[in-house]
Structure formats: C-alpha cells, structure tokens
Amino acid sequence: MSEILIAHCIVGPVLLAASSMMKLWPPKKINSFYGYRTPKSMKSQLAWDEANTYSADLLLWAGISTILIQVISYFVVGGHISLLISIGYYLVFLITSIILTERRLKLKGF
User: Fold this and answer.
1) Residue 32 domain-assigned?
2) Number of domains observed in the structure of the chain
3) pLDDT tens across 38-76, in order?
4) What is the C-alpha end-to-end distance of the chain, expressed in Å?
5) How confident is the model at residue 108 (pLDDT cuts 50, 70, 90)?
6) How far apart are CA 42 and CA 17, in angstroms?
7) Is CB count within 10 Å lower at the N or C end of the chain?
C-alpha cells in the first residue's frame, strides 16, 4: 500500500472521528480545553451550547465531505497532490465553519 493511500486512510477518518466526538459528546460547560472556544462562544452558557451544537454539525459534514474529496482526488489526480487537495479542502471548510458559527451567534444575539 502506498504512503499516500495510507495517509488518506488516516486523515479522513481521523477528521470524521474528531467531528463525531464533538457531535456525540459535546462539552457541557465552558472550558478552555475542549469545544468551540472563541470569545463570543464563551460569553455565556447559552452561547457556548449554541456554538458547540452548530459547529459540531458543520464539522461532521466537513469530515464526511473531506473523505469524499479524498476518494475523488486520489483516483483523479493521485499522488501527493491529492492529499494536499484534501487537506486544503478541509482547512477551507474549517475556516468557513468558524465564520458561519460566529455569524450564527451574532444573529442569535450573543
């Protein structure tokens, strides 16, 4: 098995596992270790709960879609480029999820 294929088999599932953990076991109380931690999300328990619920949904979709992108890019492009495409896609999705979560908090009045 090639090193690139092994990396693909690790990256996507790890991202999906991390996002699944956020969805299944969201942080109950505001903390500085685990959860969606921004100044806006940590203002109140209500903001914390909203931010962590919403961002967990987004990250779950990011993990699922990253695996899809990995499979497609591996077979279409192959090599190191496919891994870079997958990681780049996830980073863009991650940044987008932060922007969307912050916007949601603002719309909810936090």
Assistant:
1) no
2) 1
3) 999 999 999 999 999 999 999 899 888 988 988 898 889
4) 49
5) very high
6) 24
7) N
